[in-house]
Design goal:
- This protein has about 90 residues and is α+β, with helices and mostly antiparallel strands.
- It has one domain.
- Helices cover about 20% and strands about 35% of the residues.
- Strand 1 and strand 2 form a beta hairpin.
Length: about 90
Amino acid sequence: MKKIMVFQENVDKIELLDSDESSLSDYVQKLSSLLKLSDISILHTSSGSVILRPSKVVSFLVSEVKAEVEEIAEQIESPESVDHVDIITDGG
C-alpha cells in the first residue's frame, strides 16, 4: 500500500492511501504525469479521489506503508465496521 501526500500552494496537505501493487518508481512516474497537464485533473486512489489543479501542486510525497496501516484502511473501507449517524441536530 502506498501513502500519497499532495502539497499545494496555500493549502494544507492532502493524504491518501492507494492499494496499487506497482513498484514505487512506476507509481511515482504515473503520478508525476499529472503535473504535466494544464487542466484540472482527478487523482483516483483506493481511499478516494481528489480534484487537482496541476499548476498549484508543489509536490507529491509517496511512500510504502506497512501492513498495519493496510489493515486500518480496510477497516475504514468496510461499511460493517462503521457506525453511521442518522440525524445530527443542533443542541439549541
